[in-house]
């Protein structure tokens, strides 16, 4: 195998591939990236057995072939080469070495046989559709903060992507929850997605997917089966196993009867919460909201550290209410609001609060209260 590739192209392709590789591997081949050169270009493939990414890049291929080499080592070398360099990559099967040359720099790296590299089995996907990158990015970006990190409740360690019914008809919906907060985000249902099975996309896959969704106008090919999900652009294909579990009936925890309505500037709220929470103990991070007519007082009382309060002008016309929340949860939800105003709907001090973005019902958040 022998090829030449621009340094910037190599950096982008190898960085995408090596990010899937786990830092600690008991199986040596999983630390490697599979380089496959064909007359059409070169591809870089990496996997951790649950997730696989393939990044295709243009290159001048002098001699087709394939080998595997340390993903992190190749990534580090590519990053440290001078800008604008033309990189020559060649592999000699007889020496089990990969040579990387750029200008006066020469590297000789150990390789492992391509035959040892595990390629994720192909699956018959039951649903195939195309979605705009901007819409997929909104679905996952606005929901991923609520993914649980509790490994024992593994079925909450991802985003539940499924087809759901809404007031406006069927939608593509993403839901995430950790039992303390919940995010439910809707987007128009793409053609071909009607028969899609509901799948739980793992946290790591959600993070890797973000790199495919930078270009707003790009069309992302999505394929879904009961066991796998695949997202593909013209250059990158990300394939992942889905979490084998049943996502809970999230509709039961979304309150319907909350009638006390608060409208507040989302940015002002996030900043105020951040300021008063400075004195709170890290363990509880509780902030109290005291609501009266067109007035919100945020306060924190930490006996060991001090106290803080801040008043905000808001739109509120219901009975006075005092309720406490985890400061971090409030900040995270407020930061998701794209519109100027966040709308909070309360019932009582012991009941979950419902949050919307202005009059938009396609993004709904729920947060459980804390005792303060």
UniProtKB/TrEMBL annotation:
Gene3D superfamilies: 3.70.10.10, DNA Polymerase III, subunit A, domain 2. One of its GO terms (molecular function) is DNA-directed DNA polymerase activity. It comes from the Bacteria. Keywords: Cytoplasm, DNA replication, DNA-binding, DNA-directed DNA polymerase, Nucleotidyltransferase, Plasmid, Transferase. Residues 1-120 form the DNA polymerase III beta sliding clamp N-terminal domain. Pfam families: DNA_pol3_beta, DNA_pol3_beta_2, DNA_pol3_beta_3. Residues 133-249 form the DNA polymerase III beta sliding clamp central domain. It is found in: Cytoplasm. Residues 252-371 form the DNA polymerase III beta sliding clamp C-terminal domain. The keyword Secreted does not apply. The keyword DNA-binding applies. NCBIfam families: dnan (TIGR00663). Forms a ring-shaped head-to-tail homodimer around DNA. Confers DNA tethering and processivity to DNA polymerases and other proteins. Acts as a clamp, forming a ring around DNA (a reaction catalyzed by the clamp-loading complex) which diffuses in an ATP-independent manner freely and bidirectionally along dsDNA. Initially characterized for its ability to contact the catalytic subunit of DNA polymerase III (Pol III), a complex, multichain enzyme responsible for most of the replicative synthesis in bacteria; Pol III exhibits 3'-5' exonuclease proofreading activity. Belongs to the beta sliding clamp family. This is Beta sliding clamp. The lineage of its organism: Bacteria, Pseudomonadati, Pseudomonadota, Alphaproteobacteria, Rhodobacterales.
